[in-house]
Amino acid sequence: MIDETEGCIEEFYVCPSCHSRLEKTRETEYQCAREGLVFPVIFGIPDFRLLGSGDKAEDGRVNSLIEKFDDFNYEGLARFYADSFGDRRAPDLWKEATERTVAALTVQTEKYEHMKIHFAQAGIELMGKGSALELGCGTGGMVCILAQKFERVVGLDAALDKLILARALAEQSRCINATFVCAYAEHLPFAHQTFSFVSAHDVIEHVGDQLRTLLEVRRSLQSGGCFYFTIPNRYSLVGPEPHVNVWGVGFLPRRWASNYVKLVKGVPYEGKRLPSCFELSRWLQTCFGPDFCRVYVLPDGALPAASVLGRAYRMFLTLPLMGLVVNTAGRLIWGSFAVVCRRD
């Protein structure tokens, strides 16, 4: 992780409520003098969540991970976490989530390859200078990849236990220019125009207020900075709802979705709001207005970038009219959206 005095990341910390500068009153605490808020630093990770730290269940997970931190490498710690705290009500989802967590770097490398494709389609160079922010970084796979491209990278997540795992992966990968912050995306604890690049892979559908999150991202972006995010399509016809692997969820009224998923899969369906292409367009118009925005479609993870089909898909998009056809028709039915925004 970054040494805060050398990396100067703390100079960009602000109160997530009023955006005033924070004072580091001691090694384990930041304080907002204007509103009297105190934010602890836990295992080297500042906790800027406005509603306070997690519940007792999260405290237990965090303490267990800290206790075992030096006993395992990243893979061992990830498997310990999954075995100890994973939700086994749907065994197939638990197994998939476990393997995805263990293979964080491989999974995120595929996503980075798709991101490069969409920046090329948009005619924008994926910048490798300045500071980058990964929203909803989870266990830190994308942070480690971006740390090879940017001078400094910050991984942000609302789950402190996931950030303990992210720290383990970053240390194992020797990402000395990466640091981690626990906060809500709707209330970013960073000064205006801090980052030259922000990304969020399959995160925006989980936040409580999508519009506020997008506005916060725009506030934190430098002029000319780029924001890239992916989000599942509510009305996808090419695959099931990706979080629970159940078909047809998006076509039901939202108030029926949780009961339907619980009936079919036996797990709750809460804290997710997948947009249609029209709702996504409204978000972008409201939050980014005249700024540059392009929406592309993703093959929903079914075409790994290095596979034969993945390479064929990329070639198909380069044909004069095919890319336009795929993106125009695909926005209505395809599995996921990829959005490239540049702040003017």
What do you see in this structure?
- The protein has helices at residues 4-7, 56-68, 74-85, 91-102, 104-122, 141-146, 160-172, 210-220, 254-265, 277-288, 308-318, 322-333; strands spanning 23-26, 29-32, 37-42, 45-46, 131-135, 152-157, 178-182, 195-201, 221-232, 292-298, 336-342.
- A hairpin with a 4-residue loop joins strand 2 (29-32) and strand 3.
- Residues 1-7 have low confidence and may be disordered.
- It is globular and about 60 Å long.
- Helix content is 40%, strand content 19%.
- The protein has one domain: Vaccinia Virus protein VP39 (Rossmann fold, 3-Layer(aba) Sandwich), CATH 3.40.50.150.
- The strands form two sheets. A seven-stranded mixed β-sheet has the order 7-6-5-8-9-11-10, with helices on both faces.
- The two termini are 32 Å apart.
Give the SSE map:
Blueprint: H1 4-7, E1 23-26, E2 29-32, E3 37-42, E4 45-46, H2 56-68, H3 74-85, H4 91-102, H5 104-122, E5 131-135, H6 141-146, E6 152-157, H7 160-172, E7 178-182, E8 195-201, H8 210-220, E9 221-232, H9 254-265, H10 277-288, E10 292-298, H11 308-318, H12 322-333, E11 336-342
Parallel strand pairs: 5-6, 5-8, 6-7, 8-9
Antiparallel strand pairs: 1-2, 2-3, 3-4, 9-11, 10-11
